[in-house]
Amino acid sequence: MAKPVRRAKVSAEMRAGRAAGRVFEATIANVREHAPAAMLGDVDGIHDMRVAVKRLREAMRLFRRLLPTRRRERMMPVVEILNDTLGEVRERDVLIRDAQQLRGELEDDGELTSTATEAWRTERAEAFEHLLRTWAKMTGDGFFDALEEIARRTRKRGRMVNRLDYEQFAYAEIIRALERVRERLGPALESTEPAPLHRLRIGVKRLKYAMEPFRRIFPLMREPYSVVSEAQQILGLAHDLDVLRERLAEHLDCIPGDGRAAAGATLEVLDRRRGERYMVAREVIRAFADPEFERALRDAID
């Protein structure tokens, strides 16, 4: 069972810099807490740590105007590397999981999923070894010390933006993230291609991460946050099938002739499932086109 996410103790009237420092400390603590299970190779541990690292990265983006610039610029690439390295392991875990589920629903897939899964298990082992080496180097180089120093300095900075009320800062950042979602919404609703929906997924994910640090000070944001969270989950599931389809197709040439027809049928089944999931995703994201959603969000944070 995943450990609960540590929340920072902040208030609407607190100075933005002080509050951001506390939030940043909480995201660092979440990474630290999930690291032991992840470094044992546990599937859930890898997932939990990657989510924690994503929250850390998004906090660095969200509070970029409040954090000490040079220290942030020095650590951001390190956090990106950690996120990507965890992602290489997590992607194989998701592929293996989804391929096994697909295989269980088919009478015969021409060994497509079993052939691909065997390759992905090998890739997963290699990616995990790379993760261990990367993590050992990062922690040896003072990864947590550097991040915690950023949090300390953020709390103490006296710049004008750091002296804003946390509530004022929050409003500007949430609306900025919402505008990015609205910009990407039209193409995602109009196109049947994966790319626009993928761009919207990233925008929705960043809106969710932009809302999370402020939920304590905006209790009325609960309902809009639920809409965003559901959309992010549905879009993520659709993207998972896009990746599975692409990666399974790479192994089609490895299937012997007598299994090619069944393997092709497997991809057809997967394509139908992707189409169904895309329909669900587009219905969910229509909520962002409803003026009532934006009104509710603005009222919650105003």
How would you briefly describe this protein structure?
The protein has ten helices and no strands. The longest helix has 36 residues, at 69-104. The protein has 302 residues and is mostly helical.
How many domains make up the 3D coordinates? 2
CATH topology of the largest domain: Four Helix Bundle (Hemerythrin (Met), subunit A)
Could you list the spans in which at least 5 consecutive residues all have pLDDT below 50?
A: none
Biggest beta sheet summary: none
Task: Give the number of helices.
Answer: 10
Helix content: over 70%
Question: What are the salient characteristics of this protein?
Answer:
Four Helix Bundle (Hemerythrin (Met), subunit A), 0% strand, CHAD domain, 302 residues, 2 domains, mainly alpha
Structural account:
This protein has helices at residues 16-38, 43-62, 69-104, 112-140, 143-156, 166-190, 194-211, 222-250, 260-285, 291-301. By secondary structure, it is mostly helical. The protein has 2 domains: 14-164, Four Helix Bundle (Hemerythrin (Met), subunit A) (Up-down Bundle); 165-302, CHAD domain, CATH 1.40.20. The radius of gyration is 21 Å and the shape is flat.
